[in-house]
Design brief:
The structure holds 2 protein chains of 2 kinds.
Chain A lengths: L2 E5 L3 H14 L4 E6 L2 H11 L3 E5 L7 H8 L4 E6 L3 H10 L2 E4 L4 H16 L9 H16 L7 E6 L2 E6 L3 E6 L4 E5 L2 E5 L3 H7 L5 E5 L2 E4 L3 E6 L5 E5 L5 E4 L11
Chain B lengths: L24 H18 L7 H24 L7 H25 L3 H6 L1 H61 L1 H16 L4 H16 L10 H18 L4 E7 L12 H14 L6 E9 L4 E8 L14 H12 L5 E5 L5 E8 L3
Parallel strand pairs in B: 1-2
Antiparallel strand pairs in B: 2-3, 3-5, 4-5
Helix pairs in contact in B: 1-2, 2-3, 2-5, 3-5, 6-7, 6-8, 7-8, 8-9
The chains are: A alpha/beta, B alpha+beta.
Chain lengths: ~260, ~350
């Protein structure tokens, strides 16, 4: 008797898969149903099913990461909605997949393939999971994890922590203890230091102009030289200015 | 890419359809006609028999035409093509009557120069040739340029139209969101096939949502009540998909129902709450949507969730910048979405807008 595990975060879809499988593959026993990736791995280790149906988009750990954990220990089928990248990866990897909404005919084909594969002895059914899964996981990660530059700055305003979109930041200035961010909606204090921000802010859009100041380049209207080796950055539509120290004068050489 | 670049810029056959070295039949016919007309006009001024006048006129005209087309086909980058053509026409206008005179005198330049009548005749023909030649050359060049510009305009228009169509398509796709739709329908399918009594209600919500999701961006008549309906439909659909993970409440002051509001603005915030807050969480969460009136003509609208919260690096297309822009246009400068963290986890979006009394 063949056993199976289903991992799907949406209960209605879980039920649908269960009832369809009951019709198409009555001998299959669904041992466990997981609601997310972590549960899937736990239940897998607990029950050791022969087959696992894995939804790709699940909270916490996604289906592909689950697959990497359990690869080689069961026949895997991914369940996914229309997602070009995923379908392509699956096609390449020759791991079976079923599209959501699940069509009975398509599931029947999958069932046939699974049954055929389970007949053959374990040794001969050893595809190169690792490479394929790693590639798919990478693709999935690329989709979910954006560029590494900071998108939000968390700042204290009164008793709340505000999330300031980086696009609205005009400049950041620091004094002894705190760093202050000046943005379209006002000013706020943050804990990060100028040095940390200099590393995390997109250098195409932000430039450090002073040991204690970073400016958003789009907000700069012009630059003026000051006495000695100093200068000031003037900001569009504002009266306040940001001092530029000698070490950073070269940035404005062209202006 | 320009079809025909304006004469001033370097082109000389660069990215221009290559000019034929020989004139077209139409041009030949036109030139012959002009030559005949000129000959007829010149007749009373000169003593030569008409045949001779006509012969010279035709010859000079042909030389001008060939000079014009040859200069047009000549690939050089030293001077602009139009300049080369005008120069060639002028040169031909000065030279061809001279050639005729040489033919008459058998090459004897001094004899020619000695005859005042012939010299006068030369200058007459040369002058007419220069004037008529450059006039027609200029006309031909300007109509060519106009044609080129028309083509360029048409090309630009078509490109813009295509870009606009692409943008509309992107917008439509973003609003309809096939992924969301397919997932929702998958859920509905199960309800229907299992004969669940909830199916009807869910369908209603789906229809409500789709209807509201049709491009309404220019809709200046959208009210907060419309937005409430849309948001309720959406949350209801989402709850169907994750019943154990989503709770929601919508408390909009009925007095604000008729207030004008940018369409789909509230929905954007609710979508973010679900997609970035509730969905990624394994634990159950709650979404609260509210709107109330504050003192001094201010309205406070909020969407709060108890999801995973916003990481500093998150933010793929939360549509916030766009939303801020629309709020600014609707309610005036300074109106924006203010995001803050919720304790113990989650995000809260607040809008404080000034409304007319």
């Amino acid at each position: 008797m063949t056993t199976a595990l289903i991992a799907e975060d949406e209960p209605l879809l879980r039920e649908r898969l269960v009832s369809l499988l009951a019709r198409l593959w009555p001998e299959l026993r669904v041992l466990a149903q997981a609601r997310n990736g972590r549960e899937a791995v736990e239940l897998f280790d607990q029950w050791h099913p022969d087959v696992a149906f894995l939804d790709v988009h699940m909270p916490g750990m996604n289906g592909i990461e689950v697959a990497r954990c359990v690869a080689g220990r069961a026949e895997l089928v991914f369940v996914t909605a229309f997602d070009k990248y995923a379908v392509e990866a699956f096609r390449q990897g020759a791991i079976d997949y079923v599209l959501k909404p699940i069509e009975e005919d398509r599931l029947a084909e999958t069932v046939q393939r699974l049954r055929a594969r389970l007949q053959t002895p374990a040794i001969s059914r050893e595809p190169a999971w690792d490479a394929t899964l790693e590639r798919m996981a990478a693709q999935l990660r690329e989709k979910l994890v954006p560029k590494p530059w900071l998108k939000w700055i968390k700042a204290s305003v009164g008793s709340t922590v505000r999330l300031i979109p980086v696009e609205q930041v005009i400049y950041v200035k620091s004094d002894n203890k705190y760093t202050m961010v000046v943005w379209e909606g006002g000013e706020a204090l943050i804990r990060k230091t100028i040095r940390e921000l200099a590393d995390e802010l997109d250098p195409d859009r932000f430039a450090q102009v002073h040991r204690s100041a970073i400016v958003c380049l789009d907000r700069v209207s012009h630059f003026t030289h000051g006495p000695g080796d100093s200068g000031e950055v003037h900001l569009k539509g504002r009266t306040d200015r940001v001092a530029v120290s000698r070490s950073y004068l070269h940035l404005f050489q062209q202006m | 890419m320009s079809f025909v670049s304006p004469p001033a810029e370097a082109d000389a056959g660069a990215n221009v359809p290559s000019h034929r070295a020989l004139p077209s039949r139409r041009q030949l016919i036109q030139v012959v006609v002009v030559a005949l007309v000129v000959a007829v006009l010149l007749r009373p001024l000169v003593k030569n028999p008409f045949v001779e006048i006509m012969g010279e006129a035709l010859f000079v005209a042909m030389m001008l035409l060939f000079a014009f087309t040859a200069a047009g086909a000549w690939r050089q980058t030293v001077i602009p093509r139009w300049m080369a053509q005008v120069a060639a026409v002028t040169a031909a206008a000065l030279m061809s009557p001279f050639i005729v005179q040489m033919l008459t005198f058998g090459g004897d330049v001094s004899a020619f120069l000695g005859s005042r009548g012939h010299v006068r005749g030369y200058f007459l023909v040369a002058a007419v040739a220069v004037i008529v030649g450059t006039f027609f050359a200029a006309r031909a060049l300007s109509s060519e340029r106009a044609r080129g510009r028309a083509l360029q305009d048409a090309l630009e228009r078509e490109t813009l139209q295509r870009q606009a169509a692409d943008t509309r398509l992107d917008l439509l796709t973003a609003q309809i969101q096939p992924h969301f739709l397919l997932n929702t329908l998958a859920n509905v399918q199960e309800l229907v096939e299992s004969g669940s009594p909830r199916a009807a209600a869910v369908f209603r919500s789906l229809i409500e949502y789709l209807r509201a999701a049709m491009p309404h961006l220019q809709d200046a008549d959208a009210t907060l009540a419309d937005e409430e309906r849309l948001v309720r439909a959406y949350l209801h659909l989402m709850q169907m998909r994750m019943p154990d993970r989503l709770e929601f409440s919508v408390t909009i002051d009925p007095a604000l129902a008729a207030m004008r509001f940018p369409p789909m603005a509230l929905l954007t915030l609710v979508e973010n709450a679900i997609r970035h807050g509730i969905d990624p969480s394994c634990d159950p969460g709650k979404v609260e949507v509210g709107a109330r009136r504050l003192d001094n003509n201010m309205v406070h609208i909020w969407v709060a969730d108890t999801g995973v919260g916003l990481s500093e690096h998150a933010g793929q297309g939360t549509g916030l910048a766009n939303l801020d822009e629309r709020l600014r246009v609707f309610f005036g400068e300074g109106t924006r979405v203010e995001l803050s963290e919720q304790e113990p986890h989650g995000v809260r979006a607040d809008i404080r807008a000034r409304v007319p009394a």
